[in-house]
């Protein structure tokens, strides 16, 4: 329990906190640049997308993937610069931060889209309205942690230190080697046939 309290007060929580703050900014930007989808109202409670307007769903998902992939890369590189934190806890913190960050980007971006593309309460048949496209598929939430994990893996592979430069010595338990056989002077070493 004490270790959990230490972890909660430690720098790993700072990584998650700053990632969520950055995600709010990225979510606002995504919500402002994502295109709206135009619908032809065919009933008082719904409509159908105009020709080629359904492509904006892909645009929204692709922009989201790019923005959150960039966020994941920045978070991973920023966290890696803290050499004393390098290790499994850092990877867990970065992945948690990226998952939470992607969810925050989606929520904030959708909120900005609702404010930006306000659909009237009363719809008349034949009217064309624009609504926010939204995320489309939850699978794009995986881009941030995926890119972050790849960035951390590349940084670890390129690191020349056994302890990843964290300053903690890597302890490896080795069994002692048996002593080398001694050959008395004047005798040739024995070879097997």
Automatic annotation (TrEMBL):
Signal peptide: none annotated. It comes from Rhodococcus rhodnii. The chain crosses the membrane at residues 12-33, 60-81, 93-115, 135-158. This is DUF2567 domain-containing protein. It holds the Pfam family DUF2567. Keywords: Membrane, Transmembrane, Transmembrane helix. Residues 168-193 are annotated as: Disordered. InterPro entries: DUF2567.
